[in-house]
Design goal:
Elements lengths: L2 H19 L20 E6 L1 H4 L4 H11 L7 E6 L10 H4 L11 E2 L2 E2 L6 E5 L11 H17 L3 E5 L10 H16 L2 E3 L1 H11 L15 H16 L18 H19 L3
Parallel strand pairs: 1-2, 1-5, 5-6, 6-7
Antiparallel strand pairs: 3-4
Helix pairs in contact: 3-8, 5-6, 7-9, 8-9
């Protein structure tokens, strides 16, 4: 093969590689992409209405865990505040033992072991786009990540999605979230990128409630699938589960969203 042909082949290969790497909407790369060292057994999800719509994303996550192979038995607690930001949440209080708390084993007035293996943080929907809010998003994400690690747990940062009427915001949401997570030494759960991929591939599928912001049943299902893929380093593609809250999805829709979840998580983290 001539030098010119060799160069063209190499250049084409490089272009394809770069194109694949840039398929998702983020331009900032995550620093922490390794899977969790082991499957978590107890998780805390901290957020707001984005996480509690449609009976709560923890319910969808539980559905994937119960119907997957192997079956996962992770306990999950959801703590949300309507319209809340991370600054609303008292993380030290959440991670401390309380009377009658089934997750707390107390000996001599102290926890015998951390209450949660992982803690997932979900910021207000405007946290990554508002100039006024971004500094507070960064401040509390870093502060709470440190508190979580001090308690013996692993923090993860949930990336939210763009509103239906502002799809281009996903680049800013993604890059801001990743930048803050990198600074706070956290893994990112790329839910927003999965939303964008689903909408690009199937724009007729309604991912939003009428307010153009909160997730539809399909949106909450995708959110749960991304959590499952991230926490267990396992594709949800073959899981025979269609949703919760008396809102089961059509099998083909559920299959599409499960594929999007794994494609997004694996590509984002370089697990391919």
């Amino acid at each position: 093969m001539s030098f010119v042909r060799k160069f063209a082949a190499v250049a084409a290969g490089a272009f394809l590689a770069v194109g694949c790497a840039q398929a998702l909407e983020n331009t900032v790369a995550p620093d922490m992409t390794a899977p969790l060292a082991k499957a978590p057994k107890v998780a805390l999800l901290v957020g707001n209405s984005y996480s509690f719509y449609n009976c709560g994303v923890h319910t969808y996550l539980r559905g994937f865990m119960q119907n997957g192979t192997p079956k996962e038995t992770m306990k999950t607690r959801l703590l949300t505040i309507s319209s809340g930001s991370l600054s609303f949440h008292d993380m030290r209080h959440y991670l401390a033992p309380h009377e009658q708390d089934p997750y707390a084993e107390v000996k001599n007035g102290k926890l015998a072991h951390p209450m949660f293996d992982v803690v997932l943080l979900q910021e207000n929907s405007a946290g990554a786009t508002s100039k006024k809010r971004i500094p507070f998003f960064e401040k509390y994400a870093i502060e709470q990540a440190d508190i979580i690690r001090e308690a013996g747990s692993t923090p993860l940062l949930v990336m939210t999605w763009a509103k239906k009427n502002k799809p281009d915001d996903i680049v800013r949401i993604a890059d801001t979230t990743i930048r803050i997570a990198n600074k706070a030494k956290m893994r990112v759960v790329p839910v927003g990128l999965a939303f964008a991929e689903a909408i690009k591939s199937k724009p007729e599928l309604e991912m939003y409630m009428p307010d153009k912001s909160h997730p539809s049943a399909a949106g909450s299902y995708l959110y749960g699938a991304v959590l499952y893929a991230t926490l267990f380093h396992r594709t949800p593609a073959d899981i025979n589960y269609f949703g919760e809250c008396e809102k089961p999805l059509a099998p083909d829709t559920a299959a599409f969203l499960r594929d999007v979840a794994w494609k997004t998580v694996s590509e984002f983290n370089g697990w391919n």
